[in-house]
Design goal:
single chain, alpha+beta, Aminopeptidase, globular, binds coenzyme A
Amino acid sequence: MPVEIVELNKSHNRSEFDCGAESLNLYLKVTAHQAQTKAKSKTTVLVHPESPKRILGYFTLVLAVVPSDDFPPPYCNQYKNGLPGVNLARLAVSLECQREGYGALLLVKALEKVLRVSEQAGCASCFVDAKNGAQAFYQKFGFIPLLSDPNRLFLPIKTIKALQR
Ligand SMILES: CC(C)(COP(=O)(O)OP(=O)(O)OC[C@H]1O[C@@H](n2cnc3c(N)ncnc32)[C@H](O)[C@@H]1OP(=O)(O)O)[C@@H](O)C(=O)NCCC(=O)NCCS
C-alpha cells in the first residue's frame, strides 16, 4: 500500500512511536510538536492512509551553520565563515517496519526539502548527527564525515542536486 509523507500535526499519535532509540522516541513524544509551533524546527511524518494517525517514521529539519574548520578541503577554504545548510536533526523509522526502505524514502524526501531551501536562501549542505551507529546508513547516500567528529556527516548541495535528477 502506498504511504504518505506529511507535516506533523496534533492529530498524530506521537506517544506510541517506537524506533528502538529512546532519545528519538522522546523527541517525537515531547519536543517535536512544540518546537514546530515555535518555528524552531519542522517535522515530517510517514503514515499509511488507512491509519493516518499512526506514525511509521519521521524526520526533523533545522537551519544550521557549521564552522568551516570542521570540513575537509576544498570546503574549509571555500566557506571561510562556516557552511550554511540544513541539519537533518532526527530521522527514525518504527521498529515494526525498519529495513523496508522507509528510512531511505524519508531521507530522499528530506533532501528534496533541503534542495528547496537552497533555491530560496543560502544553503550549501545537509548535515546529520548519525546516532546509534547509523553512519554507514548515511554514507550509502554519499554523506561525508566531518573532521571534528565522524558521527557528524555532510552532503554538499551539488551532490543533492545530482541525486535528485
Ligand atoms: C537508521 C534507520 C533510520 C534506517 O531506516 P530503515 O527503514 O531501517 O532503512 P532502509 O530499509 O531504508 O535501508 C536503506 C539501506 O540502508 C541500510 N541500512 C539501514 N539501516 C542501517 C544502519 N543502521 N547501518 C547501515 N546501513 C543501514 C539498509 O540495509 C539498506 O541498504 P540496501 O539499500 O543496500 O539494502 C532506522 O533503522 C532507524 O530508525 N533506526 C533507529 C533510530 C536510528 O538509529 N536513527 C538514526 C538517526 S541518526
